[in-house]
Amino acid sequence: MRFNSFITITSCVTLLGAGMGLGCGSGSDTTASNNNGGDPGSPTVNLDQTGIMKAHTSEVRSDLFAEVNVNVEAVEILDVKGIWHSVGTAHRTINLLALDVEARALIDVNAKLEVGVYTKLRLKLNNGCTVKMLDGTIRELRIPAELSAGLIIDANIEIKAGATADIFLGLDLSSCLQLVIDAGKPCYYLRPLITVVDKLLTGSITGTVRAKLSGEVVAGAKVFAEFFDDAGRPHIQATVFADAQGHFKFDTLPLGRKYHVVCNPPSFGKGFKLFASAEIALDVNADVQVADIDLDVDVDLNLNLMGTVSGAVTPAISIDGCDYLSLVEELSCGIGCQKWFIIDHTTASIDAQESYNFKGLTKGHYAVQTSRGRCVSGGICSWDALAVSATVDLDLSLNLGVLLGIHL
Q: Are 324 and 173 in contact (CB under 8 A)?
């Protein structure tokens, strides 16, 4: 199968709310007085003409980090008059992996706002951020210069009198944190690449991951909701992990698309084959679907022969951007269905060169697709459409590693 260039768009911060539009932007830097003695985050307004903005978060997990701590200086929202209003407690350190617990520390739980439309949300971040690896090692998390004015997200939130506007935040840390070796010292850079969807136009896919032969649930499996664009290119819409009971749920998938549920079992396929479902359509008449996952045992698996696909990206990206890479594999997706699906993704590491390394692979037919993310002053980020590597057959009886370079 021949691939054209891919655009992979995966969110670091996703805002889901009624009437929300797509994109990023910047606005006036005028900041209003908050409350005239009222609640934090409440502008000086007639209380009869106010509504409430309430923040919600979904569980955030990572298979690389134990903690991701960011120093939030302020959280502000922009009205149509170009005035910024505070909606969050200033100067707080937030662990993004505990955001479901700490949401009220990021955005005031019941921030009162004057009736009207608010177009942008801004997160002002300070230095002093860190990541804690699973082994307990602490690394520096740097805020790049282009985000010094704050991370600005196009929100388009309508506040109505006496009503509550629900804002949903979610993070995919695999696309947010880039490893950089600076003068021999490893650190991470925050890469906030953003998508926005309208909560009112979303649906759900839910199910349970089980071993097909025994029926036992499989906890901790990574599950992607993927769709294909008009050119036949795969995109990850959302990523979740199965809980202790093997249950998973995607609850903010845009309607009007056909999705495949792709499961990457724990330890990257050890014991089970990777799984891709048949198409699952979500629309206004079927906005909730059940898609249980039954994993087949990989009878050809030799745990002592796990392969690697690695390589370099040239020319290397500058420090104001990152290259986002996805490993794709040809999988069966039901009777008569064979497609290329994303089974893993990462940001390329920067040292003397820019490199990537996908480990623990079973026998299969693979390729690597990449897109380049660039951020400019004010926190506005975009993707460039880039390349796909040659395809390769990984035969573990003959070859334990394959090197695939990508030239841009």
A: no
